[in-house]
Amino acid sequence: MASCTTAILGTGSYAPAKVLTNDDLAQIVDTSDDWILSRTGIRERRLADPGETTSDMAARAAATALADAGLLPAAIDAVIVATMTPDMPMPSTACFVQHKLGIPDHAACFDLNAACSGFLYALDTACALVESGRYRHALVIGAEKISTVLDWQDRTTCVLFGDAAGAVIIGRSARPDAGFLGCNLNANGSVAEILCIPGGGSKLPVSADLLASRQQFIKMKGREVFKIAVRAMEESAREILEQHQLRPDQISCVIPHQANLRIIELIAEYLGIPLDRFFINLDRYGNTSAASIPLALDEARRAGRVRAGDLVLMTAFGAGLTYGSALIRL
Ligand SMILES: CC(C)(COP(=O)(O)OP(=O)(O)OC[C@H]1O[C@@H](n2cnc3c(N)ncnc32)[C@H](O)[C@@H]1OP(=O)(O)O)[C@@H](O)C(=O)NCCC(=O)NCCS
Questions:
Q1: What is the pTM of this model?
Q2: For 283, how many CA atoms within 13 A lie in the half-sphere containing its CB?
């Protein structure tokens, strides 16, 4: 095993069938297709059925990733679900996914919450577990039923997000041209409250007053988040490139967190990487939080936008504020 590298062995994704367009949203809140498209680049997003849970979507994405890797559920030793919209506060969504897929008891199953950066946090954790030799294969999922924490009376937030799941299988690969090169993970808790769900936790437990004041939904200072996000992703991406002595033009494809097209355009400009090297699907899904990068990675692979051997830079930011970047050779 000494010559093996830790790599992505398979990818999968799932998005619910129901499409909510910007025009549909204009029937719900005071907004327009023109405003949403010009400010964010989003045209439509997906909505899970009321009976469809985060773990349902996660399991579907994971089943596709397992098939892509050519592995049976019994090969999985760890299931990590990055989510901020778990099925329940406890137990973890990962345990529901394990049961739905028939992954045996020997697997460690846990959730991880780093909001929209969650997938990169989970990816780095999984790669460390596999690299250490403690686990052979880890299933890493980003999944969100974010429609359940959106205030459908708040036009400043409800137009931005969508439901989906994406998954990757991490394991050892004998291919010398494939492998996880590294990751930086960061957080700035001093600005935690500019993007949060204030209620429903131990600080403001569920109560009639809480529900009446709509504190169970996402609250965001959009302009502040925008500015910090651009700087944070640019810095973390630059840092990882320098650390690996790579020039921007050596990156085959950038898979950024899909929050806002204007944010992605600015990062492309600041990093000096042409926008056509960025894989962008936010026009069809909106911001799917922890699902956004694995969903985009899976679509990019299936569309032939990234191939075996390509050097891929992933970069994300989210509530916390958390942020980070990862480099992987597919
Ligand atoms: C949310 C965001 C799109 C708003 O765009 P913006 O250009 O900053 O717009 P502002 O918040 O300054 O609002 C401008 C005006 O549009 C209005 N507006 C906000 N949402 C609107 C909507 N959906 N439709 C129509 N008008 C809207 C505001 O009320 C404001 O009106 P006013 O000038 O009369 O007060 C942008 O700030 C953003 O994308 N921020 C980052 C958010 C993000 O990515 N969060 C996820 C992090 S993982």
A1: 0.97
A2: 7
